[in-house]
Structures are given as C-alpha cells and as structure tokens.
Design goal:
Blueprint: H1 11-14, E1 39-42, E2 49-51, E3 61-63, E4 68-73, H2 82-85, H3 90-96, E5 98-99, E6 102-103, E7 114-121, E8 129-139, E9 150-157, E10 176-183, E11 190-198, E12 202-203, E13 209-210, E14 237-238, E15 242-248, E16 265-266, E17 278-282, E18 290-298, E19 309-310, E20 313-322, E21 338-340, E22 344-350, H4 355-358, H5 363-370, H6 373-391, H7 396-406, E23 408-413, E24 420-426, H8 440-445, E25 450-454, E26 459-464, E27 467-472, E28 477-480, E29 483-486, E30 492-494, E31 497-499, H9 502-513
Parallel strand pairs: 1-4, 3-7
Antiparallel strand pairs: 2-7, 4-20, 5-6, 7-18, 8-17, 8-20, 9-10, 10-11, 11-14, 12-13, 15-16, 15-18, 17-21, 18-19, 21-22, 22-24, 23-24, 25-26, 26-27, 27-28, 28-29, 30-31
Helix pairs in contact: 6-7
Length: about 525
C-alpha cells in the first residue's frame, strides 16, 4: 500500500496545528502582505435570476479567483404562501410579479428553480476546476410585518415524489403542501409545521389551469384550499441550511433544465452542501458560469416526497479557480461535483454521469424516464474507486477493499430525474495526509490577522478586516461578530499549545476576509 491507513482514534487532538506559548494575552500582526479579496453583493431580483435554466448565459456578475460573494437565493415555492413568503419583500415580489398580460421572468423553464447568476470567473477555461467555499448561510427574513422575526418554508409532497400514487389513504394521487416556520435570527435551530393543505386546481393570471404542481411561480389562491393546522404537533425538525442547486454551466447545451443534476453539479440536493463545506466543480465553458439557488432549511437523504423545506437564504461564498496545469491528484480529471468538509470527502454519482451527452438530443426529457438507483450506485462506486486510487494513491485492490469496509454510500435523491448516490470517505483514517497540520499563529498572521489568547477563559480571538472570531477550547460553537456560529471543528490544547486543522485555517481565513 502506498500510504498507510490509520483508523481515526483520538485524532481530534493530534490532527492540528501549534500556536506559540499560551501563558499570557498576546496580539500580533507581523505581515505586510495583507489578504484582501474583493467582496461582492449579488441581490436576487428579476434582472439577476433565471427561472429553471442552469445553462450558459450572460453573467449577472463577474469576479476574480479568491473573491467573496454575498448571494441571495430565493425558493421557487414562495407562491405556496404569498402572505408569509412574498408579501413585503421587494426582491421576491419582483421575481414573482405576474398579472394578466404582464409577467416578470416570463421565460420559466425548462426547469423550476430560481437560479441567481450566473457568476462568471475571470480566466476560467474548460479543464479547470472551480472551488466554492460556503462561508455563511442565513435565513432570509420575510417582508410581512405580521410575521416579523420568522422565516417560512414549504415542503410539497408533489407529483414527482417517489411514492406519488402509491399511498394507502385516498386519494392515492394527492399533492400536499406543508408550511414550516423558523426563527429568522436562529434563536432556535429547528423548524415546526404551521399547517398543511392539499393542492387544489389553480388558475394562473393568464387563464391556464393547473390541476397539479406543474408550473413554477403559480401563486396559490388560499380561498381555494382547506388549511389543516393539526399537523406534526410537538415535532421539531433540525434546521440544516444548504443549497439544493449550485453548479457551473455544462458545455453540451445552451439552455439546461435545472432539475436533473450532472457532472457540472446543479440540483445535487445533498444537505451537506452547507456552511463549512467546499464544493469542487469541473469547468467546461469559459467563465465557469456559476449559478446558485434552490435553498433548503432541512432535507433527509433521498428527498423522498419530492422536495425539502424549500426556503430563501442569503449566503457568503468564496470562489477559487484552479487552473488545469496545476491541479493536484484529487482534482486532476475531475468529472463530478466533489464535496469536502472538515472530516470527509463526498463523491457524488448519478444514474448518468453526463446525461446530456449520453442520452443525446432528447436528453432533457428522456432522463426522467431512464433513471435508477442501480445505475447511480454503480456510477458512485466507480467514481469513489477512481478518487481513492488517484487522490489517495491506492492500488485498485486497496481502494476496493477500503470502499467496502469504511465508505458509507447513501441515496442522495430519487426525485430529480437523474437520481443520485453519494459516498462518504472519512479523512481521519488517512492520518495527517488528509488533515494536514500547520501552525495556527503563522497561518493567520501571515495574511495580516491578529491572534489573541485569554488564559483565564481559554479563549482564542482571531481579528481581521473588522471581523472577530472568538472560540473557547473544546467548544463546538464560537462567536463571530457578536453572533453564535457553529465551528467547522473545535480548537484543542495539546501539550500547552492550541491546535486546529488546516481546513479550519483555510475556511476562517476566507470568512475573516469578507468586507461587510
């Protein structure tokens, strides 16, 4: 075996970097080479979003590698409760505006998601890889003063759900919409159901009738529905904010349905694509053309009834371009959306690795008739084996054995046309090679940050660019600019020295560099 595999025993204390003596309060800023990426803001409105298309298009924003973008992402299900999810929010009202003979975002399709962007990255070319760090995600406040302090989301058991028509109770073919409520400022970390209703026949402003959920942006007339407030009483659903749909434009077509995921990312619907995670996408068109949308507040693996808790979110991302000539072994030849976080690599497989190429001219309709978990599992297995062989320098036999004894395969989704299976690869079993230790003090001071230590409270303070992160030893949460945040990893003291991981350093270097 080319690299020794070590089981993850006690790595929390051993995988981390060293800071100088902690005997006193200490601040330092010795670097003259300050790290100052540009911060952009991309608001969502009818001029900056596309509805249902993740293909090529004129960029809404152009950035350079390393830049940070605050991006607004709006759920396409907002019309299921106009009062709670559209009213009073100027950006959402603009996107959903539709009266007889007047319709913003008139080109809705071929998919359903509201995609903010695309974002062009200067210098991106086919063969490169685009890295996207998710630095922050926050619920979007609703604009209706009647529901101040709350954000709402929708789960629709829809006609594309896995068990549609296969229910026990009548009518077996039914679509049920459940409205969920969350504290906007994160005072609680769970969602609760407010009410649900069965979808009834809706008529849009142009007179088209919709017996099912079959067209994006239809505002549900609440005079036509019966609300059931006796739903999921006492149940608290953990809030796990994530982007359901994010990816770069594929090369195979100009207009691309936002629903089926593929090698370029898109509607992957993996709840792990969240704050603290990093995505890697293979670039196949000039500028990469990154689009972001379909934000979720909660979803289980499989997204079995067709949707998650569909809500609206504002996120901070950093985009980093890796040129083809300098790709490392993990990214060289990348042909799928790859996820990394503090503890894992996540490989994504699909029924068709590149359905646009494999299914030909009618791919964007045929994909919905040809997907299977068997095909997705096979694709994920081959990709995982290849990743372990190239990225971890294992032989094929070593990789195959490791997949069987330690990789966790799961069903990502069975509702997006091109079904998904993912594989979780634990970094800890590879020892320092996958959680490389570096020195905390020099790592942060080298780009201009101040590092402080309060021995009485065992608190480390990182200050940079007007941002401050405070963390206590062993805690899973910290205080960032006065708000409680979940840390990508706790900090530890080993032999009298502070320790954290390299992934931690890279993540918070970017987060601290954002300009408010």
């Amino acid at each position: 075996m080319k690299k020794q595999i070590i089981r993850n025993v006690g790595v929390t204390l051993s995988m981390f970097l060293v800071v100088n003596s902690l005997s006193s309060v200490m601040y330092a800023n010795t670097s003259n080479d300050a790290y100052k990426p540009k911060t952009h803001v991309l608001k969502a409105n009818s001029e900056t979003v596309r509805w249902g298309n993740i293909g090529k298009g004129d960029p809404a924003l152009t950035v350079h590698s390393g830049d940070i973008v605050t991006v607004e992402a709006i759920t396409h299900h907002s019309g299921d409760d106009y009062e709670r999810m559209i009213k009073g929010d100027a950006g959402v009202e603009d996107i959903f505006h539709w009266i007889e003979g007047e319709k913003n975002e008139a080109l809705r399709g071929p998919g359903v998601h509201i995609m903010t962007g695309p974002i062009a990255v200067e210098g991106a070319e086919p063969g490169d890889v685009l890295e996207v760090k998710i630095l922050d995600m926050k619920l979007r406040p609703n604009g209706n003063d009647q529901y101040a302090g709350k954000t709402y989301g929708v789960n629709a058991a829809a006609n594309w759900g896995y068990l549609y028509g296969d229910m026990v109770e009548e009518p077996k073919k039914r679509e049920v919409v459940t409205i969920y409520e969350m504290d906007t400022e994160g005072g609680t970390d769970y969602a609760t159901a407010v009410y649900n209703y069965k979808w009834s026949v809706q008529t849009d402003p142009d007179g088209q009738v919709h017996p099912t959920i079959d067209y994006p942006g239809v505002i549900v007339d609440h005079k036509t529905i019966d609300k059931n407030f006796d739903v999921l009483k006492g149940v608290k659903i953990p809030v796990r904010l994530h982007f359901g749909t994010m990816g770069v434009a594929p090369k195979e077509a100009d207009v691309v349905d936002s629903v089926p995921p593929s090698y370029n990312g898109g509607n992957v619907d993996d709840w792990r694509i969240t704050e603290g995670a990093t995505m890697y996408y293979p670039v196949s068109v000039a500028g990469a053309l990154l689009s972001i949308g379909d934000p979720h507040a909660g979803q289980g693996d499989s997204e079995i009834n067709g949707t998650a808790i569909e809500t609206s979110v504002t996120g901070d991302i950093q985009v980093i371009l890796h040129k083809k000539a300098s790709l490392n072994n993990k990214l060289k030849g990348l042909n799928f959306p790859l996820l990394e976080n503090e503890n894992e690599w996540v490989v994504h497989g699909f029924s068709y690795a590149n359905y646009l190429e494999e299914l030909g001219a009618s791919a964007q309709t045929d994909i919905f008739k040809n997907s299977s978990i068997d095909k997705a599992m096979k694709d994920a297995a081959h990709k995982t084996k290849d990743f372990l062989m190239a990225g971890m320098e294992l032989s094929e036999d070593e990789a195959y054995s490791l997949m069987s004894v330690s990789a966790d395969f799961g069903i990502t989704q069975v509702v997006d046309g091109n079904w998904g299976v993912h594989a979780l690869i634990d970094k800890g079993q590879f020892g320092d090679s996958e959680r490389k230790p570096v020195v905390l003090r020099s790592s942060f001071e080298n780009f201009g940050a101040k590092v402080g230590w309060q021995p009485a409270t065992k608190t480390v303070t990182l200050s940079y660019n007007g941002n401050v992160l405070e963390m206590k030893v062993g805690a899973t949460t910290g205080i960032y600019n006065g708000e409680t945040v979940k840390l990508v990893a706790p900090i530890s003291v080993v032999n009298g020295k502070i320790v954290v991981s390299e992934y931690f350093v890279n993540f918070y270097k970017a987060k601290l560099a954002k300009t408010e």
